[in-house]
Write a structure and sequence with these properties.
20 helices, five-stranded parallel sheet, 15 strands, single chain
């Protein structure tokens, strides 16, 4: 149980006691919310319950607040519980309660912050870039968001499965095959043109040259269709290998790599479309097959199978999502898509309803665009290839930790400016450096204590009574709430902000409180506090998929 939930239960019991005495009328109990006050002098927690009850009972908010406070049982965890204008109840934790939190953190270690919100299965699908080229910067943002959200949901008690959907079927794959074959012929001095709608990036030319080095003229001797298919398959396998390598460098792995081809081989695609047809949701017209979305509230119908017999992305996505919900039986699914898929969201919800699946079980998070900058100058083109900058190039320039922190620093629905210069700057101006330096400083203190042979395992945290010490403890105590907030909102950008706040509070504590001093008892207590701070900061970094450096 989180501390906020405990407070809510205490308020509910106090309200029941006040109601039994006729002090708060006969109103039912509304939802109880517990918040962190914006100003420290207002306490550690606050509730607006009296304001809600005042509207229901017609009583003055302060009278309701006073009645509830008067019925709160004594509790040593609180220094003060007060009714304050215009009708809040504020809770201030006692120094002894705060001091005990240090031991709680030290005992929990790298599980500190874990909570048990839901025992439900959730699948998170992200990146899912076509294996027809390298990942770009936008893919990186989705990868970091998805993997961090997975980490947090696991910490909140969910059973999480992460998945990459490999689009290895359809017209784009055929276009890539033929583009690569054309470049292969060109590399051998033959006349060939990249087909209309094909892939013209320099990476295709580079890949074709590699094929010539490895296989020579082997594919000139085969029938064209066979040569296209074999060369195309090699190209797809190599692109997928690069994709996996780039993601691993970014610290992103997946539990499942799901092949689109598997939907056809298993019969899932055909059976799903048959269900829609049997339900009366499919129409045949204009030599194409349509999902009659307009009968379900959509503005227009959507094509499932084109006039040439090839399925659209929408058609295979329907079968894929039916597989997620009805076959693999995930309780909920989170898809993380790029900004160009915004128009696809509502129709996916509609078609799930047609298949008998509650649309609210699917959440789709749209990642907005990323603009790269060096200071004030926008960067659009790769210096290396003249094409769009790839995720690999970004990783080579700023490193995975900076990539992850910066990508997480804005909510997914906000466009992002990624300053390459700032990301590698070794100063307090760079939030990545600032946070990791705090961990390195903590580690240095603990190394110094070890070198001096100081044993602080029995340190008395009750000695931690100064304001810098208590402020640091208060900051550390927020971590379970941060995990709960992200698990419920699916917004991991709260983590980098929390990491910066925690680092700031630690740096302030370090400046004001000498950790290792002549006072052996106080030294032991403060070293225990420093250890707890390292645990919380490292946990925050690891949830973000970043390293926690011992030295910098």
């Amino acid at each position: 149980m989180t501390f906020k939930k405990r407070l809510a239960e205490m308020l509910a019991q106090a309200f029941a006691g006040a109601a039994a005495k006729g002090l708060v009328g006969n109103a039912g109990l509304p939802e109880i919310t517990i918040e962190r006050p914006a100003r420290p002098e207002h306490g550690d927690y606050a509730s607006s319950l009296p304001l809600k009850l005042a509207r229901l009972t017609g009583m003055k908010p302060m009278d309701v607040a006073a009645a509830i406070v008067d019925n709160m049982p004594p509790d040593n965890d609180f220094e003060k519980v007060a009714a304050v204008p215009p009708g809040f109840i504020n809770f201030t934790l006692s120094k002894s309660r705060l001091a005990r939190q240090v031991d709680v953190v030290c005992r929990a270690g790298d599980t500190y912050g874990n909570i048990q919100l839901e025992d439900k299965s959730v699948q998170i699908e992200y990146v899912s870039g076509n294996p027809t080229g390298p990942l770009h910067v936008g893919h990186g943002r989705g990868a970091v968001l998805g993997s961090t959200l997975a980490n947090v949901l696991k910490a909140a008690g969910y059973r999480v499965s992460t998945e990459y959907y490999i689009n290895d079927a359809g017209s784009q794959l055929e276009a890539f095959h033929r583009s690569l074959y054309a470049r292969y012929l060109q590399s051998l001095g033959k006349e060939a043109e990249v087909p209309s709608g094909g892939y013209h990036g320099n990476y295709v030319t580079d890949l074709a040259r590699d094929l010539v080095k490895q296989y020579g003229e082997k594919y000139l001797e085969l029938p064209e269709d066979r040569a296209v298919a074999e060369i195309g398959q090699i190209g797809i396998e190599r692109e997928m290998l690069q994709i996996k390598q780039d993601l691993e460098t970014l610290g992103v792995t997946f539990d499942v790599w799901f092949s689109e081809q598997g939907l056809f081989k298993s019969g899932r695609y055909d059976s799903t479309l048959k269900m829609l047809r049997d339900g009366g949701y499919i129409a045949d017209r204009e030599n194409a097959t349509w999902f009659t979305s307009s009968t379900l509230g959509e503005d227009k119908d959507n094509v499932l199978v084109r006039s040439d017999g090839t399925p659209t992305y929408f058609a295979t996505d329907i079968a894929y999502h039916y597989d997620k919900f009805a076959v693999r039986k995930f309780d909920s699914v989170i898809d993380i898509w790029g900004a160009d898929h915004q128009g696809h969201v509502q129709r996916m919800k509609v078609v799930l309803g047609a298949l008998g699946i509650e649309p609210q079980r699917l959440e789709i998070i749209i990642c907005q665009l990323v603009t790269l900058r060096r200071g004030k100058e926008a960067v659009k083109i790769s210096k290396r290839s003249g094409d769009i900058i790839t995720l690999r190039e970004l990783l080579e320039e700023v490193g995975p930790d900076a990539c992850r922190f910066v990508f997480l620093s804005r909510s997914a629905d906000s466009q992002m400016d990624f300053d390459l210069e700032l990301a590698i700057k070794q100063s307090a101006d760079n939030p990545v450096y600032y946070v990791q330096y705090a961990h390195a400083r903590i580690s240095s203190i603990l190394r110094s204590a070890a070198e001096k042979g100081i044993d602080f395992t029995a340190g008395d945290t009750g000695l931690l009574t100064s304001e810098p010490e208590l402020t640091l403890i208060r900051s550390m105590a927020k971590m379970p709430e941060i995990i709960e907030t992200i698990a419920l909102s699916h917004q991991p950008h709260h983590l980098p902000f929390y990491a910066q706040d925690l680092a700031t509070v630690f740096h302030s504590f370090y400046k004001q409180c000498r950790v290792i001093s002549e006072d052996a008892d106080l030294t032991a207590a403060r070293l225990k506090l420093v250890l707890a701070a390292r645990i919380v900061l490292a946990r925050t970094l690891h949830l973000m998929g970043m390293t926690a450096p011992e030295k910098m």
